[in-house]
Design goal:
The protein is of the alpha/beta class and about 325 residues long. The protein has eleven helices and 20 strands.
């Protein structure tokens, strides 16, 4: 069962990443350029397979991490969608805090090349003698490519339509191993040393030379799952091939549809447009955020989106999607 809630409450929510131990999607900031009392600037944490990944780092992000009890020492990778301040003004402060906490391991930042050009002088001035390396990985927001990969997950860029070079990120879990049927493993006396090979799909040969098919010894693997983050973007159906069928889509919804002219002018989306993308991409769940500061109440966003795509939730600060 997946649960959605804050630190004090937890309500059932059939969400993403089944069978991912300790998986969490935590909203650190759901606002846009102007922070409000309710909404910090953009940032999210994806926790999966015992690793933390940060997406965007607006001003105040490190304070949100402290407030929400995120283990900052476990953060090794930061993905920055674009170089607008509400998505990257918190980078230098975050790195400085990591240094003050005694970090020694490398910290990786994936962003447009200009971020390093802007941040390096500040680090050289304010963070002299860092005990760890800050490694910048330059990405081209105009193309879709894998920018991070390990044995359990890969991260791919999603080109978006905004005033500056901007991309989203697709977190896609790699295929999982099949489940051993304990009764059959015991029946055929499968030694422990063979279990890993069988999980990976191999047949088993007994001491008598009998070949036992893998599907007799195992059950199908749990489905691999995916999460797409679509940061600031005008409505664009060009992203559909990249996000089709994902388990969860975060799509910005800066304005309500009554302000769609303003959305078009600023190259943002409305809640209704985000929902239309979710329908056309056949995603399973939609989470909307990046709300304009002109709106004090976000319930209208939820109503508008749900009128098109029922399975919509609000990405409000502190909200946690947990397995």
């Amino acid at each position: 069962m997946i649960h959605l809630g804050d630190a004090k409450t937890c309500v059932p929510f059939c969400f993403i990443m089944r069978d991912m131990e300790n998986f969490k999607l935590r909203i650190l900031g759901s606002g846009s350029a102007l922070p409000t009392k309710m909404s910090n600037q953009a940032s999210q944490i994806v926790e999966t397979h015992d690793k933390l990944f940060m997406i965007d780092c607006g001003e105040g992000t490190q304070c949100q991490m402290r407030r929400l009890n995120v283990r900052i020492s476990r953060l090794n990778h930061l993905f920055v969608s674009h170089l607008h301040g509400d998505h990257c003004f918190g980078v230098v402060g975050l790195i400085s805090t990591l240094d003050l906490l005694g970090r020694t391991s490398d910290f990786h930042v994936y962003a447009h090349k200009d971020l390093e050009r802007l941040v390096r002088p500040q680090l050289d001035y304010f963070c002299q003698g860092l005990a760890f390396n800050v490694i910048f990985h330059h990405i081209d927001p105009k193309v879709s490519e894998v920018i991070y990969e390990d044995n359990s997950i890969e991260v791919r860029t999603i080109p978006l339509k905004h005033k500056v070079p901007t991309c989203g990120f697709l977190f896609k879990e790699k295929p999982k191993q099949r489940h051993i049927r304990r009764d059959m493993a015991d029946f055929y006396k499968v030694p422990i040393r063979e279990m890993q090979h069988i999980k990976n799909g191999a047949d088993f040969v007994t001491e008598d030379g009998e070949v036992v098919p893998n599907d007799r010894l195992t059950k199908p693997a749990d489905p691999s799952v995916s999460f797409a983050y679509c940061s600031d973007t005008a409505y664009s159906e060009k992203i559909l091939p990249y996000i089709e069928g994902v388990d969860c889509l975060f799509h910005e919804a800066t304005f309500l549809d009554v302000q769609k002219g303003r959305a078009r002018e600023t190259m943002h989306s409305t809640a209704l447009q985000a929902a239309e993308i979710a329908v056309k991409a056949k995603v399973k769940r939609l989470v909307i955020g990046h709300f304009s500061a002109r709106y004090e109440d976000h319930k209208a966003f939820l109503s508008e989106a749900r009128s098109v795509f029922e399975n919509t939730e609000l990405a409000e600060d502190g909200r946690v999607f947990r397995f």
